Amino acid sequence: MRKGFNVVLLAAGLAGCGATPQEYRNEKDLPLPPGQGAFGDSLTHEWRRKDTIPTAAPVLASAREQDEFKKWRESASSPERREFEEWRAWQEWKRNNPR
User: For the chain, is the Cβ count within 10 Å smaller at the N or the C terminus?
Assistant: First the structure.
């Protein structure tokens, strides 16, 4: 029985079990396409003048964000906010001036 198993094992090993050979590549050897990699499009050979760079469209805030900003601006002058800023400044002074 053991001899038969060894023969089958040897035959399978020699035949390769019907496996097709695979081509192995190291991805570090392949050149990256433009726009990919650590820096993307920031480090390319293409240089543009300052006046030809397209400007981004201004970001429009939603009505909800505008309301929140108005509330924040109003609360910035409240006595609680001033007290918090004073406490924050004291904490920072304490951290910078240890005993």
Answer: C
Q: Give the tens place of pLDDT for each residue, 49-88.
A: 777 766 676 677 788 888 888 887 777 777 877 888 899 9
Report d(CA 34, CA 40) in Å as an integer.
Answer: 7
CA 93 to chain centre: 35
Domain residue limits at 75: 61-99
CA distance 29 to 32: 9
Q: How far apart are CA 84 and CA 91, in angstroms?
A: 10
Domains in the chain: how many in total?
1
Residue 34 CA to residue 43 CA, distance in Å, equals 10
